[in-house]
Write a structure and sequence with these properties.
This protein has about 120 residues and is mainly alpha-helical. Helix content is about 100%, strand content about 0%. It contains one helix and no strands. The chain has one helix at about 1-125. The radius of gyration is 52 Å and the shape is rod-shaped.
Length: about 120
């Protein structure tokens, strides 16, 4: 009888402990499933972010190329502007020289006309 009592007590004590262990396993399994779901979601978000980063990187590279092309065009236009300024300055200098020559020739013409008029006056007298 003592053996039956000891066996009954042992079963009574071991069974709840065993069930408690099963409950812990179920809780751990549920937590593991939750963690797996969270991991999948996080990995999915990571993949989306990687894809977005790739798109942004490609867009940035294209914009950088356009910026480089624009800078090159700007430099070429600046060179053209400088050439045009030099041409304009040369044309202004040439025009000023021509105006000075015209003025000089105009004064010489007046002198010659005055001299001719004087000579005609002398001839007419």
């Amino acid at each position: 009888m003592k053996q039956i009592l000891i066996l009954t007590c042992t079963i009574a004590l071991v069974f709840p402990i065993a069930l408690m262990g099963c409950n812990i396993d179920a809780e751990q399994k549920a937590e593991l499933e939750n963690l797996k779901a969270a991991l999948e979601k996080t990995e999915s978000e990571r993949d989306d972010l990687k894809a977005r980063i790739d798109i942004v990187t490609q867009t940035r590279d294209k914009l950088q190329e356009q910026l480089t092309e624009l800078a090159s065009s700007r430099d070429q236009l600046q060179e053209q502007v400088e050439d045009l300024i030099q041409s304009r300055d040369a044309a202004v200098a040439t025009a000023q020289n021509a105006q000075e020559r015209i003025n000089k020739l105009g004064s010489q013409l007046k002198q010659i006309q005055t001299a001719i008029a004087e000579l005609q006056d002398k001839l007419n007298l």
